Amino acid sequence: MSTDDSDCIVRFENVGLRYGLGPEVLQDISYSLDAGSFHFLVGASGAGKSSLLRLMYLANKPSRGLVNLFGRDIATLPRAELPAVRRRIGVVFQEFRLLSHLSAFDNVALPLRVAGVREDEVERNVVELLSWVGLKDHLQARPPTLSGGQQQRVAIARAVIARPRLLLADEPTGNVDDRMAMRLVHLFEELNKLGTTIVIATHNETLVDKLRHPCLRLDEGRLSMRPGRVIDAAADMPAAGRRRDESDGSDETRRKSGKVA
Amino acid sequence: MLSRRSDIPLDRDGLSRFLPWLVAFMVYLAALALAGTLVLNTLAARWDRDVSGTLTVQIPPGAGPRDDDERLRATLALFRDLPGVAYAEPLDQGRLMALLEPWLGGMEATADLPLPQLIDVSLTSDAKLDVAALSRRLAAAVPGATIDDHSIWLARLVRMVRAVEALAGAILVLIGASTVGTVVFTTRTGLAVHQEAIEVLHLTGAQDAYIARQFASRAMALGLRGGVAGLALAVPTLLGIGFLSARLEAGLLPQLTLFAEHWLALAALPLAAALIAMLTARYTVMRTLARML
């Protein structure tokens, strides 16, 4: 648990969210996530998991309270600076949200292109990543022609291609069998070892129990936390793979914890 | 090896297919209005150049040929001595007949008519003549002789031409405004249709300008396509009007001719339409997205 904002990737204080004039779907949410932590986000359908993730990836603004990402208060952040914050966040949407008119290659290339990366570099990185997720032979395939599992891998590749500091995944194992689910979660764990903070919203209690990562639980819009077993994954992190801004060997970044107030 | 498509599937918009047709229609009308403006402007300038700085003196027929000669000599003497007069020469009978021919017919019809004598006077560029005082002097020296100051009717004519020009300009502005309105409507519809793709782009960190660039490029391409089509339709129309005006051979009607620089101005219309479409689309997208998170 951090007390210093510089190690804190996400901090919510008394956050409430309502859509229009409806009831609050999130109430008094207060928690923080340290850099390099791995959390599951669980709760029944309609508990507000997707809403909480939408606040974290800046698709919505809270009705009240403070949302702080990477040490920046979102309420006072000028609109022009939002894209820079969003580029540090990778999102795997529940329904993938791949652009159906684009190829798998172009979908994965999106975050790099919007960041203005040179096209030769885009091509090299995207081809490498799609090969790594087993889609080398489907570079030019459009999403509608891919299977659910293949689309999921494209969505995950898009979320991680720009090496985000925070990865949010909404039910990323919802459409695949248990074996594939474990494989994808191991992929997230690998990313986590490289320093990415991970939050996975899931219904899959088996998965949560098996992996024993700390768990954020939403119940009727209220958040509670179940601590997980401490995994000092950063110790296993290859030095070359560590992020420059997180490779200072600080003990704080290795705690991989979260805190619910 | 890997082809690149627009991130937003704008080419699938049904509505954007109509934009080139609307722009073509606008550019067609704009080409006619602009051609009218340019022709009138040239005409006014030519009238101004030809007639300003000149006077025509009219001496009505006297008691006989001898009297006519004396009155002509007296008038010429008066004008040739005036400071600011560069040239004062009587119009010969042939030119006089040619001037009257459109109204009165050929030489045989006018041979017996008592025609006035006309003196063509050119002034130096810095001449400042008091035409009213000069008229009084002339009337005292040669009774009945009058000065036709072209600047009076010329000013009226030029004023009328300028009014028509202003009207054509207003029509051009209205056409431009209609084009802007059409592009705004099309762009807003495109934003609504592609909301999902735009949100994905935003969430992957795209700046508004990145999204606006895609709409602007598309609008420019459609505007250019429509503009070229509109101009292609306008050129034969203008050539046809020019051909018809030349065939009328009416002395009263000015020659409706477009010069090279006029055609260049008309050729710029599709580019202007493309530019207007591009800037309008960009502004509309930026303004609409600014209201989103």
List keywords for this structure.
A: 261 residues, alpha/beta, six-stranded mixed sheet, five-stranded antiparallel sheet, 11 strands, B: 293 residues, alpha+beta, 2 domains, four-stranded antiparallel sheet, 68% helix, elongated
What would you say this structure looks like, in words?
- The complex is a heterodimer of chains A (261) and B (293).
- Chain A contains 8 helices and 11 strands.
- With 261 residues, chain A is α/β, with parallel strands linked by helices.
- In chain A, helix 6 links the parallel strand 7 and strand 8.
- Chain A is globular.
- Chain B has a 4-stranded antiparallel β-sheet with strand order 2-3-1-4.
- Chain B has 2 domains: 174 residues, no CATH class; 84 residues, no CATH class.
- The radius of gyration of chain B is 31 Å and the shape is elongated.
- Chain B contains 9 helices and 4 strands.
Largest sheet of chain B: 4 strands, antiparallel
- Tell me the structural class of chain B: alpha+beta
The major pleated sheet of chain A works out as:
6 strands, mixed
Radius of gyration of chain A: 18 Å
Number of E-state strands of chain B: 4
Major sheet of chain A: order of its strands? 6-7-8-3-9-10
Helix segment tally of chain A: 8
Q: What percent of the residues of chain B sit in helical stretches (DSSP H or I)?
A: 55-70%
Tell me the number of structural domains of chain B.
2
Rounded mean pLDDT score of chain B: 85
Given the C-alpha coordinates, what overall shape of chain A results?
A: globular
Query: What is the CA-CA span between the terminal residues of chain A?
Result: 11 Å
Please give the count of helices of chain B: 9
- Strand percentage of chain A: 15-25%
What order do the SSEs of chain B take from the amino end to the carboxyl end, as H and E? HEHEHHEHEHHHH
* Approximate strand percentage of chain B: 5-15%
Q: Supply Rg of chain B.
A: 31 Å
Uncertain residue ranges of chain B: none
Helix percent of chain A reads 25-40%
The total beta strand count of chain A reads 11
